[in-house]
Amino acid sequence: MVTRGDAWQQAAGQNRRELHPFTVAIHRDWLMTPRKDLGDRKPRELLHGAIPWIHAVTSGQELRYHRGEPMVAVPNDWEGYDTAPMGSQEMCMYFDLCREVIEAGWYWCQSEREILATTSPESAHPKLVSFLRDVKEDWLTRPFEGGSPPNFIIECDRRRVPRGAGVPIEGMDSVESEVHIPDCNCPICAMMADGMFGASFCSIDGHHLESDGEFAFSMHETHEEWEQEQREYDNLSDEFDDPCDDLDAVEDEDTERDEDPFASAWTGIKHDSPIPGDRGGYIKMAFMVSEIGMTLENHGASEEEIQELNAAFADYRRSGTECAESAAKLRAVLQSLSQRYPRLISKSADLQSRIDENARTLASNQSDPDDPF
Question: What span, in angstroms and rounded, lies between the C-alpha atoms of 235 and 294?
């Protein structure tokens, strides 16, 4: 047992950071060691091979939904269902489950340290297995990152359907939990939470599988593919080495506008043409409010000031055609901020003029009051 080794006895303390190297080693060895019960194959070999075509199937299901057709789950009563190939979502869940079980095992060994010192590994094994089995069952049914539990995520992947917040699936009783939008002071995220972009489909991209820099955990099937990605990461790291780059860019843009009074007030909005489908102009304005928030943050504004701006914009876009009062409040907030932060004067003035233009546009769209934009 690892816990009987000198390294674990000397280095492993009571916190996750000290135990993490042992967790990585156990997990890596498990995945990369051939097993007789798998026909001398490595467990890792069973994780790959089907991810691309399963992704294609689930993506096709999502397109069906957007065309107004139902998403249909593959039946779960056919022979071989339990041993069918893994998709990317189930693979991510498997990674997290392994980490959960291994870490729980360390703490069990610590709590039973005295008993383990006087008994053989064989006699302790059944108790550990029973404990870890309970850990697994509990983890599978708990919400994952505030959303649906792992057992639902795994079932959707195994039945080849994507997960859309509140979207029904033919053949399944459960649906994906409503999307959780973190409080990130982003007006675009707030619009997503309000459902202004339609059904929200979610997936796990697997980036956390790469955090240990080990090929064994990678979503890439071959070592060559993984090495290529590592080179790409290194190149990106070289490009973003200077943590002051973003602030320098903001200062450069401010200086450019000082020198050229006709330069655009915005750095993220490159064209004045409307966004297709954005009849109310709210989506484009959300990007502008987001840029103002970023400017405020970079120039030392308080959290309350940024939240006040976002709340005023949220009230304005939710008001629809009856927006005179909320529009006046938003203009007042913008005016107040620009007085406190002179760098915002051009952005504030431009956005206020767009609010006035929006009022005229909304008035002309009265013939279609149900249009969400």
Answer: 26
Sign of the dihedral defined by the CA atoms of residues 104, 110, 114, 118, in that order: positive
Using DSSP, state whether 35 is helix, strand or coil: strand
Spatial separation of the C-alpha atoms in residues 28 and 2, rounded to whole Å = 14
C-alpha to C-alpha distances, 170 to 85, 107, 165, nearest whole angstrom: 22, 42, 15
Residue 35, phi then psi, degrees to nearest 5: -130, 140
Q: Which residues contact 127 (CB under 8 A, 6 or more apart)?
A: 112
Among candidates 283, 279, 284, 288, which has minimal Cα distance to 363? 279
- Any residues with CB less than 8 A from the CB of 130 and at least 6 apart, and which? none
Dist. CA 102–CA 26, nearest whole Å: 8
What is the maximum span of the chain, computed from C-alpha positions, in angstroms? 83
Q: What are the tens digits of pLDDT across the range 23-71?
A: 999 999 999 999 999 999 999 999 998 999 999 999 999 999 989 999 9
Phi-psi region of 163 (alpha: psi -120 to 50; beta: other; left: phi over 0): beta
Q: Is the pLDDT of residue 262 over 90?
A: no
Six-digit token string for 230: 């590592």
Q: Is the pLDDT of residue 223 over 80?
A: yes
- Kindly compute the dihedral angle of the four CA atoms of residues 339, 341, 346, 348, in this order, to the nearest 10 degrees: -70
Phi-psi region of 270 (alpha: psi -120 to 50; beta: other; left: phi over 0): alpha
Torsion angles phi and psi, residue 164, rounded to 5: -115, 135
Can you name the residues that pair with 260 across neighbouring β-strands?
none
Any idea how long the chain is? 373
How far separated are the first and last CA of the chain, in Å rounded? 62
Structure tokens at 307: 């939240």
Extended beta strands in 30-146, E state: 71-72
Is the Cβ–Cβ distance between 108 and 131 less than 8 Å?
A: yes
Global pTM value = 0.73
Residue 9 confidence (pLDDT): 52
Interval 209-223 mean pLDDT: 94
Token representation of residue 38: 């798998």
Query: For residue 200, what are its two tokens?
Result: 């929200």
